[in-house]
Amino acid sequence: MNIGDLVTRNSYDNDLVFTIVDIEGDIYYLKGINVRLYADSTLDDLRKYNNEEDVELEEVFQERLKDKREINRDEYFYLPGKILHIDGDKDYLNKCLAYYEDMNIAAMGIIEKESEVAPKMYQLLEEYKPNILVITGHDAYYKSKGNIDNMEAYKNSQNFVDAIKEARKYESSHEKLIIVAGACQSNYEELIRAGANFASSPRRVNIHALDPAIIAANMSLADINKDINLKEIIENTKYGSNGIGGIITKGTMYRGYPR
Q1: Cβ atoms 212, 222 nearer than 8 A
Q2: For residues 147, 148, 150 and 154, what is the CA-based torsion angle, rounded to 10 degrees?
Q3: Are residues 182 and 200 in contact, defined by beta-carbon separation less than 8 angstroms?
Q4: pTM recorded for the entire structure
Q5: In whole angstroms, how far apart are CA 17 and each of 33, 63, 91, 103, 148?
Q6: Is 209:36 a contact under the CB 8 Å cutoff?
Q7: Do residues 80 and 221 touch, judged by C-beta distance below 8 A?
Q8: Which residues pair with 40 in a beta bridge?
C-alpha cells in the first residue's frame, strides 16, 4: 500500500475510512476521510477500501444534510449570522467551507494549530467580528494517561479551553457570540464550563469532520428572536448527542421586510 491509498482497519471492523498520509518502516499513519481522527496501524491490519462499499453510509448522511439547506424564500429577506471557523486541519476546513458555501452562509476559514489559537483569538475576533465562532481541529482522549476528568489525558482539550476563555474575554455573552468548540473525544464538560455554547464530545466518541460546521450553520440560520430547538440541531450531526452537546440559546439570523 502507498501514501494516498484509502484503507480501513480490520481490528475495528472496517468501520471508518482513512487515507495513508505517511509510512515509517512497518507503521502506516492514517487520517480519517470524514472523521476527525489520526491513527496508525501495521500493514496486516489494513484493508484497501472498496468504493462500492458504503462503510460510513456517507451518502445517506450527505443527503440528509441537503434536506436542511433551503430557506423558505417568501416575502421576507434573511440575514444569516457570520461564521469564523478556526481549524487545525486544512482538509477538514475546506470541507466545512464548502458546506457553508452550499448553505449560502458567509464564513471565514482560518487554519491554525490548536496550540496557537488562544494567543491569536482576540485579534481574530476583532478583525472578523463573527456572530458564530468555531474552534476545532484534532483531539483525543488517552485512557492510559488518566480518567476522563483529567485534562492531561487529552491531546488538545486544554488548548480548546484556553481559546474559549480568550474568546469570552472579548465577548462574555453566550447570545452575542455563539461558540462551537472541540473535536474527536474532547472534554465536553470543561469546554462548556469554559464558555462554549456547543462542544464535543459527551460520550468521548469521534465526530464527523462536518459536525462543528453543521452546528454553526444551524445557528446561523436560526431566528435571532427565538430559542433554538436544541435536540433537533444536535441530532442533525452525524453522531447526535453522543458526539456534541450544548445549551439552549437564540439563533443569529435577522429577518427583514420587504424582500
Answers
A1: no
A2: 110
A3: yes
A4: 0.90
A5: 6, 19, 15, 26, 26
A6: yes
A7: yes
A8: 29
Contact 96, 210 (CB under 8 A): yes
Residue with cell 470543561: 190
pLDDT average per 10 residues of sequence, the chain (259 residues): 93 90 95 90 92 58 65 81 97 95 95 98 97 97 95 97 98 98 98 98 96 97 95 94 97 92
Rounded CA gap, 74 and 214, in Å?
A: 24
Q: Are 197 and 234 in contact (CB under 8 A)?
A: no
Q: How many CB atoms lie within 10 A of CB 67?
A: 8
Buried b (16+ CB within 10 A) or exposed e, 168-203: beebeebeebbbbbbbbbbbbebbbebbbbbbbbbe
Dump the DSSP string for 145-158. G--TT-GGGBSSHH
Helix (H, G, I), strand (E, B) or coil at 225: coil
